[in-house]
Amino acid sequence: xxxxxxxxxxxxxxxxxxxxxxxxxxxxxxxxxxxxxxxxxxxxxxxxxxxxxxxxxxxxxxxxxxxxxxxxxxxxxxxxxxxxxxxxxxxxxxxxxxxxxxxxxxxxxxxxxxxxxxxxxxxxxxxxxxxxxxxxxxxxxxxxxxxxxxxxxxxxxxxxxxxxxxxxxxxxxxxxxxxxxxxxxxxxxxxxxxxxxxxxxxxxxxxxxxxxxxxxxxxxxxxxxxxxxxxxxxxxxxxxxxxxxxxxxxxxxxxxxxxx
Length: 260
What we know:
Elements: E1 4-9, E2 16-18, E3 21-23, H1 31-43, E4 54-57, H2 65-78, E5 84-90, E6 93-97, E7 107-112, E8 118-120, H3 121-130, E9 136-142, H4 149-153, E10 169-171, E11 177-181, E12 191-192, E13 199-200, H5 201-212, H6 220-234, E14 241-245, H7 249-253
Parallel strand pairs: 1-4, 1-5, 5-9, 9-11, 10-14
Antiparallel strand pairs: 2-3, 6-7, 7-8, 11-14, 12-13
Helix pairs in contact: 1-5, 5-6
């Protein structure tokens, strides 16, 4: 088995040149906490990854576009039938005019590397297309455009209603791919100080549900379904979305989350 996870966080990219203008990026203060929380969930899964199979990239020298692409190529190139690959992107997202007319809304979504160079959604999609069809890919994208013990006793995660299936967009054709994003294409994503710790809204919701909501670890459906509710509680300015491709929805969303 060559299952693996790649967790990528970019708190403060250099300015970007996008569509003929310079875009400055404010510093994000929760990225390190987000990556640590997701790594912890991966290690606590029912059938967890080996710690050596979880790669975390957060230092500016490690999150250049060239190094991100190199690490992705290495991870994806090793995947074998039956493997699971988990990818997290945490930082700044944006959009740029679509140059190859493959996006119906006329925009390509991008992830901003530490050097400010954008990595297009098309570049990620091209890699998924090269993997064996029975490799499962789970994506968490906490970006724009995609305590005390007393406080925790009455945390809202303890009062969430049983979730409906979280998938909001499904495509039956293709290999099993399940992507959970922090915001819609036209939306910003935000950070929250819930529980006295700076975190991205999506990452905070996943981590808090994982820790505090009974049943959240039973399946992706329960974890993501609960997390959608909690993310809306933390900040209603963004809307989480789950996308699934593949003919057998239940075979993926009913798995224990992050198990390999």
